[in-house]
Amino acid sequence: MKLIAMDLDGTLLTKDKRVSDFNRDILNRKSNEGIELVIASGRDLYSIVDLTGCLNVKYHICFNGAKIYKNRELIYSKSMDRGICLDILERAVEMGLNYSATAGKEVHFTKIDPEYVKEYGTNKELEFFHITDGKPLGREFEKMVFVGDAERFKKLRKYVTTKYEKELNIFGSGDGVMDIVNIQCGKGTALKLVAEDIGIDVGQTMAFGDNENDLSMLDTAGCPVIMANAAEELKKTEYKRTVTNDENGVGVFVEKFFER
Fold first, then answer.
1. CB 120 within 8 A of CB 44
2. CB 192 within 8 A of CB 204
3. What is the pLDDT of residues 110-120, one digit of tens each?
4. 183 neighbors 168 (Cβ within 8 angstroms)
5. How many whole angstroms separate alpha carbon 214 and alpha carbon 61?
6. Where are the beta strands (DSSP E) in 41-161?
7. pLDDT of 5-56, one tens digit each?
8. 206 neighbors 221 (Cβ within 8 angstroms)
9. Number of C-alpha atoms within 13 angstroms, CB side, residue 6?
10. Which Gene3D superfamilies match (predicted)?
């Protein structure tokens, strides 16, 4: 294996949102041995770097594959059609769903993690738009995130897949959270692009995940691994298994794998 790609929430991070000392030491040791470490998350670059600054990471796959950074420089970005975004956001508001959506350095939201706003609200590179009148602004968003209950998700998902099946990817990325990106985006596609940039075969990659938005990456990697705390959908697969994120699942598997 020449590359290790890792999801963050529910995978590499503990429940209190940190990289454990054990995982840090194991992964940085592998990095020093020449293995590329890649973070693949639904998060943006700013929060990923803050959470994983202790790791030797060159490539960051953000927004579930809608953006890829190399040495913190953007090397790939794919947005969605402006009209499609506006249509979906308006429908979501009608259904009573909250959302946050990102276009470049603009963050539009009806509801967003207050800790995120507190931490990045003064970031001069970001511009926040709090939508309070129920009228979304049209943009070519890279990612739209919806927050709400399962019944509303089901209705929105049916609407999106029926109308925009050939234009968009839609998947759950956690409890009560649903993401939408361009059909050309996904962690699997992003992993292929990173492997090509490095000059290795994608079969020489290992990937860790725990949720629906990790499936394409797990299907693409040569050695796919799911956490013991993974969503039930992933547990139906034949992927390799490791212990939970709070039990250092990534580091435990990596250490045992390379001891063989």
1. no
2. no
3. 976 666 666 66
4. yes
5. 12
6. 57-62, 67-70, 73-77, 98-103, 106-109, 127-130, 143-147
7. 999 999 999 999 999 999 999 999 999 999 999 999 999 998 899 999 999 9
8. yes
9. 29
10. 3.30.1240.10, HAD superfamily/HAD-like
